[in-house]
Amino acid sequence: MPLRDYQTETINDIYKSMAAGNHRIVVQQPPRTGKTVIMAEIAKRATQKGNRVLTVVHRKSWLIR
């Protein structure tokens, strides 16, 4: 499935930030905008170049009522 325009824009912005020397980049977007899809695309591009990827996520869900 092709990326949406805003997802491609986010990926391009991340690469620009990395090119500017930033190493700790946080992506914050509203729910259902495809943050997982964006990370998967970045990981795919990295592994295609022979790089390794480590993804760390928290396991505890917070339910606020």
Compose a concise summary of this entry.
With 65 residues, the protein is mostly helical. The protein contains two helices and no strands. The mean pLDDT is 92.
Task: List the SSEs and their pairings.
Layout: H1 5-19, H2 35-48
Strand content: under 5%
Query: Overall pLDDT, averaged?
Result: 92
Number of strands: 0
How many strands, what sense, and barrel or not for the largest sheet?
Answer: none
Q: Can you count the helices?
A: 2
Report the span from N to C terminus.
35 Å
Extract low-pLDDT stretches.
none
Helix content: 40-55%
Radius of gyration of CA atoms, rounded to a whole number: 14 Å
Order of helices and strands: HH
Broad structural category: mainly alpha
Question: What general form does the structure show?
Answer: globular
For the record, the count of structural domains works out to: 1
Any descriptors?
65 residues, mainly alpha, 45% helix, globular
Plain-language structure description:
- With 65 residues, this protein is an all-alpha fold.
- It contains 2 helices and no strands.
- The chain has one domain (1-65).
- Helix 1 (5-19) packs across helix 2 (35-48).
